[in-house]
Amino acid sequence: MRLIFITLLSLVLTSSVNAKCNFNCSKDKPTSDSFKKDTSSIMVGDAKSGYKFDERNVSHNEAFKMIEHQGLYSAKFKLGMNMKGAKDDWVRNGVTGYAQRFEYGEQKQYTQKFDKEIWTRIVFWLPEDTVSIDQTALFDLKEIRNNQQFGPLLNLAIRDEGKGSILKIKHNFDKNDCVIGKDGDGENSFCDKIDVNIIIGPIKKFTNRWVNFVSRAIWSNQDKGAYDA
To answer: How far apart are CA 186 and CA 182, in angstroms?
Structure first.
């Protein structure tokens, strides 16, 4: 059986993103100490439990902060090349500066189940001058098979395809055959896959404002499987 693992605001390379408080937000303002640590103030429903920070996250103290942004409780993510990254991200195939991340996502035991309708909503804010020459992933879905996590099956990302930075969705629903292998001292997934890219638009259309991304999924090995966003 294949399960789906959701990662909220997965950042690769340099970016700064704010995630907004959704739906039934508490009106009681947290204390200053709890506000710095409490991510539950921006999560709703099933998302209030079962999530954790990734072990490969950048350890720099500027990478993640709980802040108030335009009157809303927010999680601010900021990555820079000077922060480097975890060894299995920062150096791959002998290349230094390959990737870095700060992720907050579902734990394996709380993954999305098959044959159930699942709605996901994230709200993010991108600075006005946001660009991404390579790739900055804001959200992704990863496959878990036999208790092993593989690379993203789908992601919402910023990337420059040759005509400036764009916001796009990339998925591998047609083919995504992955194995886990050695990559230097660590392990990463290697996939034989077919990439399908859906361009949403130039990134400048989605900066300096709150942007809602809503998706509906039914994960299934039958014809009733669906993904809408």
So the answer is: 6
